[in-house]
Structure formats: structure tokens, C-alpha cells
Amino acid sequence: MTIDSPDSHKLKVGQTQLQESHPHLFEVLQRIADGLTKVFGDACEVVIHDLSDPEHSVVHVSNGRVTDRHIGDGIRDMAMVLRSPRFKDDTLAPYLSETRAGRRIKAMTTVIRDEDENIVGAFCLNLDLEPFLQARNLVEGLVGGLPIESPEEEAPIRDQGMLTILQHIIRQTIDKVGVPVAEMDKGTKVRIVRFLDEREVFKIKGAVDDVAERLAVSRYTVYNYLDEARRSRS
What pLDDT is stored for residue 26 in this prediction? Predict the structure, then answer.
């Protein structure tokens, strides 16, 4: 999974960290997050991600009771967001999803870029629909939305921006291990593949090829790692 002419557009992926490199931006986003949850109450949750570390991307949570998010948690559904045909201008909103506890939520996700178009994070709002669904007749307009498509087969990504974000997540996940790929053992590579698989990255067409290239293994080996990771989970 490659971009044919990376210099032909403005979308760039840097190693920028949201908190350290953009403290003022991070502070403003925190205030917005906390303000939104105060306005919408306990049904609203806002999560800020620093995508320089996908495995521990959550750097701020306002009212984490909706999806049980905590600082230090990793990304969960970014791959689902990226493969939605409605993801454009770095944003998907609104969409319907479910928490791990089975609660239905209405959500939005937008990717954060700095002044040089480098990806630095993501801003996610989750609205717990359960209280509203109990009073559906009164708030029918609030619960409208379309689900993210979750095809069983790999879904192609044609937009260069989406592709750049996905490659950023894959690269950062591998880089954050802190060990050169040439020195990684099999167990480390399987852990990387397991993390990406749990985020449904491999449902996006081309992801296997990109991970294989970055881990310096064959596509066949990545599929073997996937099988091993899935067997260990089951």
C-alpha cells in the first residue's frame, strides 16, 4: 500500500507529538472537550488522541463513562472510520456505533493536523444514545445517523488523505516498539500484528502489504502472524 507521488499533494505525516510540540493547541482542545461535556451532560464523552503513539494514543478524556476510555488507552475504531465512504475532509460525522458493553452511541471523529498538514491527533465525540432511545418518540431527530460499513472483505481506500492516516498509524505502531525491525523477534512482530488486527486495520485493502514491507517479512508471514494472534485471542 503506497502513495505513488507523495510530493504531489499537501498531506504529510510527521513524527509530531500533540502535547509536546503543540501545547497551546492541546490546551485549547482540552477546554473544548470539557466544555462540550458540560453542555451535553453525562451522555457526552470527548476523547483526544495523540496519533504519534497509536498503542497509547488517548491523552485526554472528558467524561469517560460512555465508552470506558482512560488516558493511555490505544485507538479502537480508527480503521473503521477510515474505510467509511463518508469520511472526507479528515472527518466522519455523525455515525452510529456500539461500545464494548453494547451501548449504542452517536459519534464523530476528526483528524487533527498542524500548520504543516502533519497528522498530530484525533478529536472524538461520543454521545450515549441509550437515554434518548428510551424516549425515542420525543427525540427522534437526535438518534438519526448512518452506521459505518463493516464489510467482511477488505475495503479499498481511494482517498490519499485516508491512506496517509492509515500508513501513519501502521508506521507509528511499529516505531513505538523502540526496537529496529531488523532486531525484532517473532513475538514482537506478532504483538504488533495483533494490535493492528484488533483495530481492524487489516480489513482495509493493502494493509497486509504495507505491514509486511515495514516488518521486512512476506505477505505470507503476516498472514501466519494473524492466524497466530487470532488463535491466542480465542
Answer: 95
pLDDT tens for 95-112 read: 999 998 899 999 999 999
CA atoms of 118 and 116, how far apart (whole Å): 5
Considering the domain 6-147 in this protein, what is its CATH number? 3.30.450.20
Question: How far, rounded to the nearest angstrom, does the alpha carbon of residue 148 sit from its chain's CA centroid?
Answer: 13
Lowest mean pLDDT among 127-141, 162-176, 191-205: 127-141
- Check residue 232 and give its pLDDT: 87
H-only helix segments in 41-159: 78-82, 130-133
Nearest of 177, 181, 193 to residue 228 by alpha carbon: 193
Q: 207 near 196, Cβ under 8 Å?
A: yes
What pLDDT does residue 76 have?
92
In terms of DSSP H, where are the helices of 176-218?
186-198, 207-215
CA dihedral 213, 227, 52, 171 (to 10 degrees): 0
Q: C-alpha angle with apex 97: 96 to 99, nearest 5 degrees? A: 145
* Domains in the chain: boundaries: 6-147, 160-233
Asked whether 79 and 154 are in contact (CB, 8 A), the reply is no
Per-residue pLDDT at 150? 52
